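Fold Annotation — chain and its backbone
Encoding — discrete vocabulary of local shapes
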Amino acid sequence: MAHRLVRGLRGAVRNLVLLRQQSEPINHFLKSSTRNYVSEMRNSAFEANILRLIRNEIQYELDRSPPAEPVPEFNSFMVDERPGEQWIGLSRKFGENEEIKIEVTMFDGSVPVKKDDDTVDEKLHVTLIVDVFKGEDTDVLEFICSAWPDSIEIRKVFTRGHDRIKDQPYMGPEFKELDDELQDSLYDFLEARGIDDKLAEFLHRYMMNKDKNEYLRWMENLKS
């Protein structure tokens, strides 16, 4: 009898072990599935929240001050908008065989300006690279300029070849170190070609609008 009891207990233990071994994969699968489901739910909620915030920001910017369509030309200059870039291009012909090409940055700096009521405002800065040349077989006369909200300031002037990457020209002294009369004549040279205070005003308005357009484009890309 004792032998049968021991044998029966051994059988019961074997059955319990087998039952446990069979249930472990099921329990593991259920736990893993639950974890994956919870993780997916959290990710989905997280992404939905990001999309909601982006959409709200886009709509806020559109409601507050919707951007205008980019202007394709100004005076005699054709404007290359270059969507998605931090630059725009300007180009025009001057005289019989002279070409002018200008690379213009978006706002790349500022200086503090004290107002009459003792508050401090920012004066935004734009960089211009002005190239003047007569055909591809001639050197380029290049001006590095600052465009402030209502004025153009020449910083450098030098000559180079057409390949900006390969050319390493001597860039000369700082513009302000040149003879005053020479400085004035070079400003006159640019003004005769439409590179003047009115162009500076136009570029600041244009870049204000481009800044808004590029921000909205960036938000749309982020959303997608």
About this structure: Strands lie at 73-74, 77-80, 87-94, 98-105, 109-114, 120-133, 140-148, 151-160. The first helix runs from residue 2 to 64. DSSP finds three helices and eight strands in the chain. The two ends are 77 Å apart (CA to CA).
